[in-house]
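Ticket #4471: structure output looks truncated?

Reporter: J.K.
Steps to reproduce: submitted the chain below (295 residues) through the standard prediction queue, then opened the result file.
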Amino acid sequence: MKSIALALPLSALLLCAGATAWAQDADADAQQAFLKQLNFREGDFNIATANATVHVRNGFHYLDAGDSRKVLEQLWGNPPDDSVLGMLVPDEDGLVGEHSWAVVLTYSDDGYVSDEDAAKIDYDDLLKDMQKEMVNENATREDAGYGRLDLIGWATPPRYDASSKKLHWAKELAFDGNAEHTLNYDVRALGRRGYLSMNAVADVSDLERVKTGMENVMQMTEFNAGERYADYDSGSDKVAGYGLAALVGGAVAAKTGLLAKLFVALMAAKKLVFVGLAAAAAAIKGFFGKKKDPQ
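Returned output as attached by the reporter:
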């Protein structure tokens, strides 16, 4: 490539550079025009589907379901997904740029998730099981023409706060062809009839900034009165067929009936491309990833 560049006249090099700069400027203008269409809000918002409230503050703004889907589908190129309930966007990092990330809210009404196994879970053993399963899946992925997806380990080990009934952890993932590893930070808030999921994806190098942000996010969400974990009625309420280990296990837990909504990302030029949550159940069978160009 260097020899080809040296063979070009200076005028051609300047023209190429000018075209590249113009394209970048045009892209930046388009992004800013897109962002101006969004209604970034703060305050308290009721998430009716989840019977929960989000108290938006501490350096974040809120996008409703419609605007969130615009970001996921139009800005970040995801498939359509009507399970998305909203999005929390950090003011400092925003939706575009080198350190951009956001928190996507979804809800599962599978029923009351018992936390009786909280003190018994060996997360090191669970990690090994998850890694083994992912290795086994990779053989099928590669046969189908897809790149590898490897679980490197915990970026932040799972931790369950029994008082707030919130479970959080972060995984470090490696996508085939991407030098930068991916951070998948998950929070599950347990309620009477299911759980609220708060999922963020970023470069693993941004772990500390995302971790700090997610600590604030966990304090912003709560279930409404009558719908909290303590309001569970054993005589009438539906019970989920899994515990906390299954929430963390993801694809492993799918074997026990949990169609885990794994939230992962492909990283390209620092731009997030999220995998739609509605497609996650099918993705467990079809395996995540972007199919390689046969050429």
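Triage note (M.O.): checked the attachment and the full token line is present. The chain has seven helices and 14 strands.
Status: closed, working as intended.
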